[in-house]
TrEMBL record:
InterPro entries: AAA+_ATPase, ABC_transporter-like_ATP-bd, ABC_transporter-like_CS, ABC_transpr_MalK-like, ABC_transpr_MalK/UgpC-like, Mo/tungstate-bd_C_term_dom, NA-bd_OB-fold, OB_MalK-like. This is sn-glycerol-3-phosphate import ATP-binding protein UgpC. Residues 5-235 form the ABC transporter domain. The keyword Isomerase does not apply. Keywords: ATP-binding, Hydrolase, Nucleotide-binding, Transport. SMART domains: AAA. One of its GO terms (cellular component) is ATP-binding cassette (ABC) transporter complex, substrate-binding subunit-containing. It is an enzyme of class 3 (hydrolase). Its EC number is 3.6.3.20. PROSITE patterns: ABC_TRANSPORTER_1 (PS00211), ABC_TRANSPORTER_2 (PS50893).
Length: 359
């Protein structure tokens, strides 16, 4: 795959504060890459460096084979969509879409053609004569995306574009962005703290922490084989259950429980004797008729029930640790009920107690 964006040994310091450190990242042509992480991890900062809105302290940025490390934003061949819509309130939608093109002195026919194409793709043709004040939040964000789209560039940058919208609008516009990528096949780099957005949109996800990339991979890879405990905890809703214990004699021991590790795919050789943490996703815990097939079974007491419609989440305690289980939404459970749950080690993740790296 030809790379569309290449980031080499990128550093960004604000005085003594290191925001990005020796960061390397290759983004393929036509790829949808999501930068995911909690607030302050450096994801928006990295996007702003790619856009040319921040001067880097070291390293290089290449877009389509050209070194743009010190190029102006307008010279980088990018279109950017910000968290805030930043539309000109006195202009119509059509005026907002065409403003940058008029400044670039494009021919009138070319401007009209690009505005028409963008408005058709984003289904905002009926809105062209309206002003931003007469638009909903979702419509305004469509216009903001359209303003980037009319530039006809190879790389689009999105900085948390849906975070100001309510849950339903976010879900609707997420689908629109995915359709847009399928239609255009442009390179898209998308910043979010919302893991659902990341998992549903991305070809690959880069999970960031402290200005570094913890793991880069497909949604399936990151969900199924997190490289460390931080990634495992960050991906998944509700988050992964963790039990601290010790690996001994081919089993994981926590309290008076012993979980056999037959079938677990160790990254290296199986440690003979080591302190470790086992991670089990709530959706990988089995209940009801499936318990009989589980390698490890334990009885728990239901302490909290959260019905969500399609699923029911229950809280319980395993070996003195808080533990959550995702059940089918039609499951009938009650507070205080005794419930047998099962765990298959092949679906679990083991992490070294000190380094927190995957075993």
């Amino acid at each position: 795959m030809t790379n569309s964006v290449e980031i080499k040994k990128l550093d960004l310091h604000f005085g003594a504060v290191k925001v990005l450190q020796d960061l390397n990242l290759d983004i393929g042509k036509g790829e949808f890459l999501v930068l995911l992480g909690s607030s302050g991890c450096g994801k928006s900062t990295l996007l702003n460096c790619i856009a040319g809105l921040l001067d880097v302290s070291g390293g290089q940025i290449h877009i389509n084979g050209t070194n743009v490390t010190w190029a102006e934003p307008s010279e980088r061949g990018i279109g950017m969509v910000f968290q805030s819509y930043a539309l000109y309130p006195q202009m119509t939608v059509e005026g907002n879409l065409s403003f940058g093109l008029k400044n670039a002195k494009l021919p009138k026919a070319e401007i009209e053609s690009r505005v028409k194409r963008a408005s058709e793709i984003l289904q905002i043709e009926p809105l062209l004569k309206r002003k931003p004040a007469a638009l909903s939040g979702g419509q305004r964000q469509r216009v903001a995306i359209g303003r980037a789209l009319v530039r006809d560039v190879d790389v689009f940058l999105f900085d948390e574009p849906l975070s100001n919208l309510d849950a339903k609008l976010r879900a609707d516009l997420r689908v629109e962005i995915k359709r847009l990528h399928h239609s255009l096949q442009n390179t898209m780099i998308y910043v979010t703290h919302d893991q659902i957005e990341a998992m549903t949109l991305a070809d690959r996800i880069a999970i960031m922490r402290g200005g570094q990339i913890m793991q880069l991979g497909s949604p399936d890879e990151i969900y199924g084989r997190p490289v460390n405990k931080y990634v495992a905890d960050f991906i998944g809703s509700p988050s992964m259950n963790f039990l601290d214990g010790r690996i001994q004699g081919g089993a994981f021991h926590v309290g008076d429980l012993s979980i056999p590790l037959d079938g677990y795919d160790f990254a290296g050789g199986s440690p003979v004797d080591a302190d470790a943490t086992i991670g089990i996703r709530p959706e990988h815990v089995v209940t009801g008729e499936l318990v009989g097939n589980a390698a490890f079974q334990v009885d728990v007491e239901v302490s909290l029930i959260e019905p969500t419609g399609s699923d029911t989440l229950i809280d319980c305690t395993v070996a003195g640790n808080h533990f959550r289980v995702r059940m089918d939404g039609q499951s009938r459970v009650s507070l205080g009920e005794k419930l047998r749950i099962g765990i298959n080690p092949s679906m679990a993740s083991l992490f070294d107690a000190k380094s927190e790296l995957r075993l």
